[in-house]
Design goal:
The protein is an alpha/beta fold. The chain is built from ten helices and 14 strands. The chain is 41% helix and 24% strand. Strand 1 and strand 2 form a beta hairpin. The radius of gyration is 32 Å and the shape is rod-shaped.
């Protein structure tokens, strides 16, 4: 038994006033406690306890030694916990994948606030609108905006619903007219969002269960939602985008919300990670931080 362990045994015997009680509290065999105290007394050349048939009590030397040792072990315990907090499971690298729009608009503030609380955590971030089919060795965590997940090999956590809206600029609407019904979209330039910059099918539904499917992208398509919003602001057509991306444009009148009674399928902002038996503490802390940041923010 090492010196630190001997001191812990010594303080336990002093508190319990019993070798058997100390053994029970520490989960040690009673003979180990007896041998540890004997070795400590032999090393110090002092008798630390008075043993009687009824109890064990400290000698004056033992009481002085306990008063010196107890705060030292408490300080050591605090130092150990601090070290684990800075360099243990909480510290390290988070390899994160996120959509471009969310990554450029929301993620900087989220990470900045998190690193104030946990400066020992580092980040490697890749932004991509392409869906990451599985969190593998490339990423520890991903943030996605998608419909209900179909993949079963990852652990998913829904954060919040993401509303999408149809919108266009006053310039475009003045030139092309404003659609009054979803079927009118066939007569408009509808900018598609597609990983390959091709066409996209918009599925819309309104109260009563009526549905309409429109093929967007005949004139303009892009793989980046930020580019699409810029095209819409410049009067190039109608977009279907998450509200949080264009909330400021809708509030200022740069973009007009179209056909509010027609709604696309619900999307979710979602976190997912590999199917780990033990999620590293830094991932758990960051997950909670993302959830709290998003659910308390306006515009989501």
């Amino acid at each position: 038994m090492g010196e630190i362990e001997e001191l812990r045994v010594f303080l336990a015997v002093a508190e319990e006033q019993s070798f058997v009680g100390a053994a029970r509290a520490l989960g040690l065999p009673p003979p180990s406690v007896t041998r540890s105290i004997a070795a400590l007394e032999d090393r110090l050349g002092l008798q630390l306890f008075i043993r009687t048939t009824r109890r064990v009590s400290l000698t004056p030397a033992g009481a002085d030694y306990a008063a010196e040792v107890d705060p030292l072990l408490q300080t050591l315990g605090r130092a150990t916990e601090t070290l684990r907090e800075r360099h243990g499971d909480t510290a390290g690298l988070i390899r994160l994948n996120a959509p471009l729009a969310f990554g450029t608009q929301a993620l900087p503030g989220i990470i900045a606030q998190f690193r104030i609380l946990h400066p020992q955590v580092n980040f490697s971030i890749v932004l991509s609108d392409s869906f990451v089919a599985s969190v593998d060795d490339s990423f520890d965590m991903a943030i996605r905006i998608s419909q209900a997940p179909r993949e079963v090999s990852s652990i998913w956590r829904k954060i919040c619903r993401i509303d999408r809206v149809l919108a266009a600029s006053p310039t475009y609407l003045n030139a092309s007219g404003q659609p009054r019904d979803a079927h009118d979209l066939a007569n408009h330039i509808c900018i598609a969002h597609d990983a390959q910059g091709r066409s996209e099918t918009w599925e819309l539904e309104r109260n009563g269960g009526e549905t309409y499917r429109h093929r967007a992208g005949g004139v303009l398509a892009a793989n980046n939602a930020g580019l699409m919003s810029e095209l819409a602001r410049s009067g190039q057509g109608i977009v279907l985008l998450p509200r949080f991306m264009i909330e400021a444009d809708l509030a200022s009148g740069r973009l007009i919300h179209l056909l509010p009674e027609w709604r696309p399928p619900q999307l979710w902002l979602t976190l997912y990670y590999p199917p780990l038996e033990h999620l590293p503490k830094r991932l758990h802390l960051f997950s909670e931080h993302v959830v709290n940041s998003v659910t308390s923010a306006e515009g989501f």
